[in-house]
Each structure stands twice: as structure tokens, then as C-alpha cells.
Amino acid sequence: MRTDKGTTDVGAGALAERSSAQLKVLERNLSARYHQIQAAGLSLDLTRGKPCPKQLDLSAELDGFLSGDYKTLDGQDCRNYGGLSGIPEAKSLGAELMQVPAENVLAGGNSSLTLMFQSLQFAMQKGLWGTDSAWQYESSTEHNGAKIKFLCPVPGYDRHFAICESLGIEMINIPFTEQSSSSGPDMQKIYSLVAQDPLIKGIWCVPKFSNPTGCTYSDDAVEKLANLPIHAGRNFLVMWDNAYSVHSVMQDEPLTSIFDAASKAGTRPNILTFSSTSKITFAGSGVGFMGAEESVLNNFLSHLQFQTIGYDKVNQLRNARFLKNNLQQHMAKHAKLIKPKFTAVQEALSSGLSEDDIARWTHPNGGYFVSLDVTPGLAKRVVKMAAEAGVVLTPAGATYPYGVDPSDHNIRIAPTYPSLEEVESAMEILILCVRLTSVQQILTSSP
Length: 447
Ligand SMILES: Cc1ncc(COP(=O)(O)O)c(C=O)c1O
Description:
Order of helices and strands: HHEHHEHHEHEEHEHEHEEHHHEEHEEH
Bound molecules: pyridoxal-5'-phosphate
Shape: globular
CATH topology of the largest domain: Aspartate Aminotransferase, domain 2
């Protein structure tokens, strides 16, 4: 299905500069096309960042890969209980993904998100740095029960925000900056906020091919974040979720190791790193990792021991053996499969929206998403209209804390799961909805 570009008037310049007569004609044409598509009863899904079946097939060898050899390098039988911090093979893989030494790695179960939740819960209730460091005591005794706060670069990952919400941590939006010398969250704003408020206890970071902007933090931003705990109040934590560390699609982007930067700054105990093989092998059956300074890791393990005797070491071993000396080649196969979908998204946005000058979008070199900013006030309407025409998008607002995008302008596009044809069709409908709502907005706001 292709939209007839002729009837929708691409090529007549920025929408805002057109006469109301021109806009009314355009609205009629776009509406007619929208109703035509609606009648087709499509069902397309651009919501969650999941690998497509062909990407999962790349790891099909995992099934049976161990061929009965369950012994680890240090002689453990993976089928048995024990080994809470993970097997050496998996720790080496986690070390590579998170840019930390293997002795600082915890290899866990199938989800890094679980480790993020547990570590924040531990920091809140028991204290990552010893019993008197629990955030809950600081909040209740020194600040009359005022809430602990976290800085959240936006747009960001909805599940990070959901963790904070469920633990009663207040969230503060931080915009991204994109200057020639620095990319990442607005460090000036961050430094000024932490200087004023000791209840700001941490920050979420997805430092490489960020969800959803695709931004990779510059050296300067990494260094400033590594130094942040020195300037913030007590017990500050940087949650460094490197979920897309090896997920280049167009080209790789180097990222400085925060652990190295923190070693120089003397802040290693204040950094927790995370990653997983979820988008490398099987999303539902991978291995999650956490990286931490030795004493922090030991404190966390002492908490974890009440929850499990040990993780699924058989799964750790098969993932680690499968990816040993194979990680880069394996990720290149992923890139080959999803690159055409990312290219299709860029081509559709560029040919469908550039001239109208009604939207901005990111051009990520890797990761799982493209972030689209429409005119403020329109994102919810676009998402609703697209749904009514058969395209499900991530709910507008989901990329912000509390599900509230103050400008109602951000839409996350996740092109990996649908087929290329489905991505193309879905993008045409999305673009049609962006154009139609934009024309309607200009018409209703003009005298
Ligand atoms: C930034 C980020 N972190 C973590 C996850 C989930 O990781 P896991 O499957 O290891 O829990 C995702 C999944 O979309 C993500 O985008």
C-alpha cells in the first residue's frame, strides 16, 4: 500500500506558510485518504522494541549448544545449585558489554530490568553502601518524609520511570542537549539541580543508542556524570543502563567507559552499570548483568541471597559459549536484518514530512528506536488517529515520567519487530496522521 503523494500535496513548502484555502484543500485530500485507509481495516504494530522472529532465529543454535557439557571454566556443574554471582564465562561477557572488569560483574537471570529494580529497592530500604545509607532513613529523618528524587533524561525508557513510580521516587525531567562538542543530558541543568537539592539521589542513563532518541553520550558527558556524585548530596547513584552497547545498525559510536571515568574521579561506588543479552540472543531467555564496585556488589549479593540460591547457570553458559569470539559477527547479522527497516523509517519521514516543516526526528546509528517530535499538543491525537486507522504506536507520553509529556509532542517509533512491508505501511499512515492533525491545528488556530 502506498499513499498517493500527488493527492496529498507534498512539495508545496512549509505548512505554516500556506494560505487557508490551500490548507483546506490539503485537509480534504488527507482526510479522504485517511478514510480510505481506515476502510482497509489494517492491523499494524510499531509499539515495543522487540527483536523480530528472524533476529531470534540467529540464535537458534542455543538450543542444544552445550551438547551435554555443563562444566564451567572453574569446574562448576551448571545444572546444580549455587554460584549466586554467576559463572566466569558469563561474567566475561557482561564485562565486555558493560566496559567493566569481570570481577565487578554479577551475571543474573534473564532480565537486567529486574536487577535495576532490585538494586534501587535495596538502595531505598537497606542501603547500597551500608545500613545507614538507606535512602528511606534520609528522607524520613532529615527531610520530614519528603520524597527521594531521581533525574530522568527525557524522552527516555518507560520501564525505568515505572520502577521509580513503584518505589515512590519522585522524578524530574531533564532535557537532552545536542551540541557539536557534547551530546547527552543537559549537564548544566543537572549540576545546578543536585547542588540545590540533597534529596536528588540518582539519575537514569541509557548512554549508547539511547531509548528512544538513539543518542550516544559524548566523552565530556560521561566524564561529567562520573564526577556528579562528588557534587551531589550523600549516596548518589548513577544508573548506567547500557542495554544497546553492541547494537550498532548504521555504524558504531564509541562510548567512554563510565567505570574508568569513575575510577579517575573516585566515584566507582556510586555507579551501577547494567546490560543484557536480551537483544543479542533470545529476548525472553537471555542473561542480565550488573556491574558494581566490589563492596557495593557484595552488599547487593548479601541482599540477593534471600531471593535466590543462584540463577539459571545453564542458560548463562550456553549464551556465553555461543557468543564467545562471535559477538561482533553476530551483531552484524542483527544489523543486516533491521537496517532496511530503519532506512525505510528515515526515508518515509524525510519524504513525507521534511517539506511541511512540522516535525523533527532522530537519525540513530543503532539501538531499537527512532524518536519523532511533532508540533506540541499533537502527539496524543496522532497516536489515537493512527490507532483508529490500524497502526498501534507506543502511547503518547510513555517516554516521559508519569506518562506525561508536558508538550505532548513525542512519539516513539519501534521498527524492528514488524516486517519491512509492515513498517512501510505503518509509516505512511503515521505520516498521514501527523500531516492531517497539523493542518487541522493550523486551520483551527488561524483567525
Ligand atoms: C534501555 C533499556 N533497558 C533495559 C531493557 C530491558 O532489558 P532486559 O530485557 O535485560 O530486562 C530495555 C528493553 O527494551 C531497554 O530499552
